[in-house]
What we know:
Strand content: 15-25%
Bound molecules: NADP nicotinamide-adenine-dinucleotide phosphate
Shape: globular
Number of strands: 7
Largest sheet: 7 strands, parallel
CATH topology: Rossmann fold
Number of domains: 1
Strand order of the largest sheet: 3-2-1-4-5-6-7
Radius of gyration: 17 Å
Distance between the termini: 41 Å
Structural class: alpha/beta
Order of helices and strands: EHEHEHEHEHEHHE
CATH architecture: 3-Layer(aba) Sandwich
CATH class: Alpha Beta
Amino acid sequence: MNLENKNILIIGGGTGMGFATAKLAESLGAKVFIAGHNNEKNAKAISKLSSNAESRYVDVVNSESISELFGSIPSVDHLFITAAPGGTGDFRNAPLEIKETYIFGKFWSLYMITKIGIEKISKDGSVTFITGGFATKPTKGTVLVTAAFHAVEGFAKALTVELAPIRFNVIRPGFIDSGFWDFMEESDRKELFDKTKKTIAVGRLGESEDIAQTAVSIMMNSFMNGQIIEVNGGILPE
Ligand SMILES: NC(=O)c1ccc[n+]([C@@H]2O[C@H](COP(=O)([O-])OP(=O)(O)OC[C@H]3O[C@@H](n4cnc5c(N)ncnc54)[C@H](OP(=O)(O)O)[C@@H]3O)[C@@H](O)[C@H]2O)c1
């Protein structure tokens, strides 16, 4: 299977792993749609891609916005979702308002996107979700992240049965220097990066392109289905 003239929708595609995937997919001949909730970022991303790429607005926690997105795209061969709004916090103080939490932003948004978009997705196509290392290695304050990641991974496995033959897979990245960590003070970020590098067997942090290669390979491999693929450089024992 190749990506020539395939329609690829990347939700969260304006930055980070999503954008790297858009770039790789378009270099392989795909028609790429990137969708996100910041039109300025979308426009900036599109300006770095070829004229074969288009952007769309979507807010993944809003079902009407998701319906408008799928209404504006004729068909989708491969869908990759990287957007994940929402927060966590220590268990005692995390808010009960589910819409503010990672369960809603990470899991329920994927449920809504898949349910609303499913009739547009090709039968020989694929859907790829993202979780992360907290799925198997929680730290204090990640209760909602870990719970949401398990929900997403279970959701993907169950969908391979209910919606066969459409393929569903999950990428579980390790620590990726994708711009995601730019919210941190530079000195704190450097300290975290240096500390984290020592825990990774290949001796470096991941890059968005590492995840892009995996995402594109899932799209192109029609026998890859129901898998959780770890891309983390190998984690050294503590
Ligand atoms: N980087 C890591 O180390 C790492 C490790 C494991 C897992 N992950 C997960 O991997 C995924 C991709 O991360 P990344 O590193 O590529 O980060 P990223 O660049 O922040 O990608 C997420 C994208 O989703 C968009 N987005 C956020 N809320 C949205 C909403 N409500 N509607 C539509 N789009 C929305 C973001 O836009 P705005 O920036 O405008 O909000 C951003 O463009 C995330 O789910 C993250 O949790 C990351």
